């Protein structure tokens, strides 16, 4: 962890950033700040993580090209080389995902193949987090300081004005101070709930959003060893489905499975949607994350084809777009660049941009985009379960059924957008509308 940086006479930090949460978003934000803060400047970063350690839980995630380009730009892709590779993944042919009708007892039918120009990386979440953390620890080319505080669960914060320091309150820890607080603390964010519930919050509609709304979807996550799968599937099934990224579909239910860790493990996520739960704003009855007996999962997919039954039998252990982590990392990268920008300062004096304005620029640049991805992810999830009720282009399901390019284009647009125009995310950081606006704003301040 760079605590003193390469220079013995490090510049004093221009401000203190507290990041709540050491998930993909929080760690990427720290990485981006470290990378983009020039040596003439420095930022003090404190990461507060509720868990006793960083990133040991979770299963597989798909990392799409726009996010891997970003990891590459930050020099982190090599750190994942042990996880990535065509060994046994079978998707090196440009076959993103195979969609299969599976809700019947008879053998399933593969009805759609998402043909992607570049394969997504299918990796273990903990490998991603370890790589990000190692990157922070080994970075010696920055004058920024980074401290990760584990067992530090933020309960709330207080802030008396936009320009005064923020006091962070923790369960079982002394409070701490920062100039900027970034909430990267997940779906039940303490930062978001404190902000939305604050008496000073003028937009009262946000008070209803203090508690996250249940989508009506339940997900069973698990990892299956390839060895176990080979015991229950025929070699032909292993080749055709075990080494590929599969989406087994049925009404109101679907299963995503794909190999990770160079084919040693199969990531399994079984979803079911409770019809009407989202629309009625129902609260999920019970704990949000818990261990369940494998019998519950088997019951959920009772009557489905043999290939699925085999998968469930091989269940050794107890986001429809595969975009959440990628989005949080992309957001973090852009926010990190804005905070690190030499013209972003605490007070905005001497022709610079104050940090509050920099945060507003971030919101202007990213809010609509992020919201669009969230909406599309929900629509895609419903489409997997033959529900066309949410924002889907009317022809989408027809295209899906016909296995034609229209559906592929619609599904892959987000994941590859920009790459064909020759830009990595970082290049686009300066060229796309969002960051162009951000840079323009900062340049305008410079020109004043
Ligand atoms: C079943 C499933 C499959 C998914 N598959 C994919 C995929 O394939 N690809 C993809 O890109 N995304 C996927 N996602 C989404 C992805 O996991 C999330 O979007 C992503 O983890 C969000 O990252 P984050 O850093 O914002 O938050 P999180 O990963 O939720 O991290 C938040 C961190 O904050 C900590 N924390 C929480 N509260 C506090 C507090 N009060 N104080 C301090 N620390 C706190 C938590 O312990 C955690 O470490 C999937 C999600 C699910 C549920």
From TrEMBL:
Keywords: FAD, Flavoprotein, Oxidoreductase. One of its GO terms (molecular function) is oxidoreductase activity. Signal peptide: none annotated. The keyword Endoplasmic reticulum does not apply. Residues 16-195 form the FAD-binding domain. The lineage of its organism: Eukaryota, Fungi, Dikarya, Basidiomycota, Agaricomycotina. InterPro entries: FAD-bd, FAD/NAD-bd_sf, FAD_monoxygenase. It comes from the Eukaryota. Pfam families: FAD_binding_3. This is FAD-binding domain-containing protein. GO terms for biological process: secondary metabolite biosynthetic process. It comes from Hericium alpestre. The keyword Oxidoreductase applies.
